[in-house]
Structure formats: structure tokens, C-alpha cells
Amino acid sequence: MHSFIKRSIICISTVLALILGADLSAGPLPSVLRVDYADYNPLSLVLRKFNWLDEEFKQDNVRIHWVFSPGSDAALKNLQADSLDIASTGSLSSLWSKANGNSIKAFYVFGRPEWAAVLVSHDSPLGSVKDLKGKSIASPTGTDAYFFLLRALHDAGLHKDDVRIISLPHKAGKAVVENHFVDAWGGVEPYAAISQLDRGSRVLYRNVHFNSYGVLNITGDFARKYPEVVSRVVNVYEKARKWAIMHSDEFRVIYAEEARVSLPVSRIVLGRYDFSRPVFEHNDITTLKDGSSILKEEKFIRQDTDVDMLINDLIDSRFVNQLHLESVR
Questions:
Q1: What is the per-residue pLDDT across 215-232, written as a single tens digit (0 to 9) for each?
Q2: Which long-range contacts link 304-311 to residues 24+ away (Cβ below 8 Å)?
Q3: What is the pLDDT of residue 26?
């Protein structure tokens, strides 16, 4: 009886493996794959530079169409509007978008950066976040920089209603704080590093624990219709990730060229990224849970939102879990 049960379990496991394998390796292909690239997703710039996605799908006659994402807010809007297939965002931005009806799945961690900070001009009299009460701050709504700003305000005992937040793209936010049109800026890399080096802007607040991580997103429909495509995109991203780790000097040069920043800025920006682990980990879940509190407190999501269920529905780990990950140092 024991051997019969054991053989039955093995048979069932084999069948399930075959089914799951088929889900990720068979199916139709789109004629065009619309993939974003962003200066906050350095690996996307490597892929675009080397045409690795184009090479991957060339034999299938799938054309790669690159779309620039200036921020998580734009990437998520394009994904929801069906004008983008693969979108790069901060994970907390994805959670917020998911809670508000965007049927998306986060399927790959492209990096764990310290990319957000609150900055002021070089000659600003402000000395702490508490001094921002009643002041104007630029930051694009729905981005990791924006949610970082809200958490920084809460850390100082302030709320968004205690300040005047002006939603501007990252590049515009940099310009207005440098030219004293606003008092502070909830900024993000690489613009924060550029502003610091070129204009002497000063970091008013940093907190590595208030940064979410960078993820690739797809819609639920795309995941169901094209699982093979998603799987192959993950494999190509893995190629870029491992290359970046093994060729750090060349990576800095490519990032500088593709993001149109100086090499010193490139060194600073990439030095604030951890590219070592593309899989979703326990700490990533904790980061999202911790960050979700600000979404509820500032009424970006409903108070009765089941965050655990929302996170479980957002993260689709099957594509990265199929990888045989090697430790690259």
C-alpha cells in the first residue's frame, strides 16, 4: 500500500509538472512586443543597447517596440491603456495601481535601489522635513518618489495636507527646485544625483527602508495569453542582469550613454542599486506591507483593502521561479 501511494504521488507530480511546463512554454505569440525602457531601470537600457530582445524573438517574427517611461505613473497608465506590454515600476506604485483597478501582475525584480530622496536647493534655509510644513514640494503622483515623500512627511509628524504637493515629472521637478519655484522636491535617480553634482542640491531626507523595489509588470490578460513570451523576457533580462554584474565598468559607461548622464552620475546611480536577486523574497513582501500603510492613511486605497490578498494577487512568481539561479558576484 505504501509503495502504491508513493508511485501515485510521483505520477501526480509528474503530470502537474508537465501541465505547468506547458503553461509557460507553449502558446501564441504577438506580432509586436511593446517593452518600456527607463532611466530608473538600468537593465532595460542594456537590453535596448544590445538588441537582445530583438534577437530573442527575431526567428518568431515578433517585432520589439521600445517605449520610454519617464516614471512609474506613466508606465502604469500605458499598461492600463493597452499601449504597453512590459512596464517598469516601483513595487509600491504597482500595488497602488492594482488596488485601484489596474489588472496587473508583477513578475520580475529588476533591482532593489535606494532611488528616492527629498531634496532642496543648495541655498535652502530648510533643515529638516518638519520645516516643510506649509511649503511647496514637487513630486509626480503615483511614483515611488511620491510615496517616499509621503512617508518622510509622516515620519516627521506631517501629512500631505500640511504641504502643497505639485505633481510634476521627475525632470521638471528637478528644474523647479533648482530655480526656487518650489521649496523641495521628492526626487528620484538619476535626476537626484545630477542635481546634487551639477547644481549643488542638498538631500534633506534619505531613508533606505522607505524605498520600494523595481519590478516588471504585465496585465493579467497578457500573462494568460502569452506566458511563453513572459518567460522568454525573463530569460533575456537574466542575461542582462548577469552581464551587468560581471561587467560593472562597461555597465556604467552604457548607462551614462543611454541615460544621457555623466559618468560620475552613472557611478553614483548604479552604486545605489542591488541587482543580485531577481526573485521575490520575504523582505520584498514586508516592504510592500509597510508601504501600504501610507496608502491607506492618505486615502490612496480603501481602508478595508485586504493588503495581503492584494499583494498575493499582484505578485506572479512562476516566471522567475522556473529559473535555475546562479550566484553571481
A1: 999 999 999 999 999 999
A2: 305/99, 310/95, 310/98, 310/99, 311/95, 311/285
A3: 54
CATH number for position 87: 3.40.190.10
Residue 297 structural domain: 31-114+212-321
Percent composition of the chain: helix, strand, coil (DSSP 3-state, to 5):
55, 20, 30
78 with 142: CB under 8 angstroms? no
- φ, ψ of residue 167 in degrees (nearest 5): -80, 110
Same domain, 220 and 101: yes
- For 5-97, strand residue ranges (E) read 32-37, 63-68, 87-90
Domains of the chain: total: 2
> Which residues have a Cβ under 8 Å from the Cβ of 306 and sit 6 or more positions away?
none
Take residue 58 and report the three cell numbers written for it: 527575431
Mean per-residue pLDDT of the chain: 91
pTM: 0.88
Instruction: Round to whole Å and give the CA distance between 43 and 47.
Output: 6
Residue 13 C-beta-side C-alpha neighbours within 13 Å: 6
Give yes or no for a contact between 57 and 232, defined as CB atoms under 8 angstroms apart: yes
Q: How far is CA 326 from each of CA 41, 88, 239, rounded to the nearest angstrom?
A: 22, 24, 12
Regarding whether 247 and 200 lie in a shared domain, the answer is: no
Whether residue 12 lies inside any domain: the answer is no
Q: Is 9 domain-assigned? A: no
> How sure is the predictor about 329, in pLDDT bands with cuts at 50, 70 and 90?
very low
In this prediction, residue 11 carries a pLDDT of 42
Q: Which of 110-119, 236-245, 269-278, 317-326 has the lowest mean pLDDT?
A: 317-326
- Point out the domain boundary residue: 147, 178, 210: 210
